[in-house]
Amino acid sequence: MKWDEDFFNQYMDxxxxxxxxxxxxxxIIDLAKRDHHRARRLLNLHILRNRVVxxxxxxxxxxxxxxxxxxxxxxxxxxxxxxxPVKHEIVKVLGIEESMIESKVGxxxxxEFQKDLLAYGMYWRKRKGDLANLRQKIQDERNFGxxx
Length: 148
Hints:
Elements: H1 5-20, H2 25-33, H3 37-46, H4 51-59, H5 61-64, H6 67-78, H7 85-94, H8 107-127, H9 130-146
Helix pairs in contact: 1-3, 2-3, 3-6, 6-8
């Protein structure tokens, strides 16, 4: 998987619509502050939309009451980063530093974030990556066979 900001933003729009319908981001943030599981997980990914979004939310994290979202996301990005080139790419593109973590998070939170990142990876592979290329190759071979 490669980090594709535009594609990730489309994924996030689709995911937000699927999980929360027409709810505004402010409403989702409010749910996340009240420890709504799906809202927290969506926000963990939402802050990765782009550098401006990440740093804007980071500056307002205390005002919004979402420091724990940053602690989880940043911790997970730096956790076993050497095994995931996409984590390294996200950290670099968004300008994230490990010093931005204020509180340690548990193994569960690290695994939860990793699962969500892997879900995006599967979505990417299905739409743009290995699986999409394989589907196209099979379709091309079928189309070529029909011309005989």
